[in-house]
Amino acid sequence: MLRTADARPVAPGTPAGAEAVLAGLDEEQRTAASAVSGPVCILAGAGTGKTRTITHRIAYGVHTGAFVPEQVLAVTFTARAAGELRTRLAGLGVGGVQARTFHAAAMRQLRYFAPRVLGGPLPPLVENKLRVVASAATRNRLTTDRTSLRDLASEIEWAKTTLATPDDYPVRAAAAGREPPFDAETVARVYASYESAKQRDGALDFEDLLLVTAYALEEHPDVARQVRGQYRHFVVDEYQDVNPLQQRLLDAWLGGRADVCVVGDPNQTIYSFTGADPDHLLGFADRYPDAAVVKLERDYRSTPQVVALANKLIGQAPPRKGLPGLRLLGQRAEGPAPRFFEHADEPAEAAAVAQACRALIEAGTPASEIAVLFRINAQSQVYESALADVGVPYVLKGGERFFERPEVREAIVLLRGAAAGGSDPGALVPTVRDVLASTGWVEHRPPAGGAARDRWQSLAALVDLAVDLVAEDPTTDLPRFVAHLAERADAQHAPTVQGVTLASMHAAKGLEWDAVFVVGLVDGVLPISQSLSRPEAVEEERRLLYVAVTRAREQLTLSWSLARNPGAKRARPRSRFLDGLVPGSTPTAPPPQRKAKKAKVVLEGEAGEIFERLRAWRSTTAQAASVPAYVVFSDAVLQAIAEAKPTSVRELSGLPGIGARKLEMYGEDVLATVSG
After folding, report:
1. Which of 141, 119, 122, 144 is nearest to 131 (CA)?
2. Binding-site residues for ATP
């Protein structure tokens, strides 16, 4: 029977350190932190102190003697999150806990057990998956470019994370509603060739790390005894994002035991397309009928106004089976009401957002506390231009990792060399400035835009970090600064770069800002057109908007534009998810769902004529290239083209589903077909 953990006072005789760990937690956090035995599920809504709760739970278990630190394994999805766990645990007086990503934990174990399991040292890892995929595609006589290779690599990753083999991939892909870059049988052949190439080279990819580690535990009793003897308590963060392969490894670690604490939010399930399976979280109580379930719903991040909008948005979703739902309770002081704006076209929308960002900065909001969030990365260009036009710096999130940027690597090498020569305490900031100046960086002269601006901002962030460290400890010298940079690089903990953040909604997960602009909210973009054939995919799009909304602490603006370009027909409908949220609107029933391959798209008038012309053109083009029709364009993309009636390559390039490769191959033909 499902049990709900009860809040309980600290028992008499509880060590003072344990008492201190629970102090300052709210009632629900305290309940979760003191539930240190048996299966535990913490449903943690956005902004409810999830990381605080799980670190205090581990610390409480250690201080009360329920946990031995070295026997706790906490797994996360990013190196930065793992580093954050370790830092917070150290602040609570707890060391020795293993906090790692799934892959890092698996690699550590497999490296140790490889001689026993594989008969030798850990094989090399595939560093460039695209190269191996390209070789496999060539062996199957496929003509590919970089875009299609990335799509193939993603499809192979999806297959491996969902435990699909090359033989059963076509059936599994069809059941999951996948839209592979080539027909499923062809992808299966490339997948098989890819696996053969790895075996021939004696290499493993990152998915193999998890699979082989799970195999080692499942098939080698001596390995299982040693690992399970070492790790007796497990914590899994972001459990809604666990895929079947990760769950298999977790099951192998547990070995039938139930001392596991999972933490997640069903409302933030947005990675199903990569193989993540929220059923692991939703079905946790079915799997462990005696599980303690604790709900964290007190939102300390956002104002009550933002919280109310988030609740209203997710409250319009159909109920889901499994664990109880979450409804956030705002804990902050009152703030401004979320704002909604309709614009004539995308440039007008971007210009309005850029002016609003400038006004916020002039009123005292740091640029780094402002974000512009969009559904697809292609939407960023118009906002980059608009922000540059009004002189507002910006940072693109989700690009190259900070510590992998060439200018940052060069700077760290120079700083390391300078540190080897010694450094005077108290002179850190001037020294860092001098070293960076040797690269041509000029502190008070940021370039206007483009790559030069990005480079300048990266180096400025290093100076800002030095300033922050000196403020904390005036004796910090250059060698300690270089060591600090190395620790941050290992944890992928990038310093704050001053500028308005431009990010996709997916890339924004886990982040927060004082002011957030959620833009481009039109049907066909959110929900994206490719999702319209499957109700469950549409609902994932709703959750994606929920994630975007809950990134805002104080100010939230949502906007859309009726046309893509100035002068175009203003016919784009705002996102269906805004119905019932925009003042004066009411929730509407979802439109009939189109079946992806069986039902026909029905368009009327001129759009219908264009759609039929596009279908005829697609059929001819596909036959000439000897490929299935959907490889050229899906029906959903043709519908988007027919409805938008693009008249230029620029208009066409902005539509979902039309990348650079297809624009180059088919752009002129499509425009000619649209014009008749």
Report:
1. 144
2. 44-51
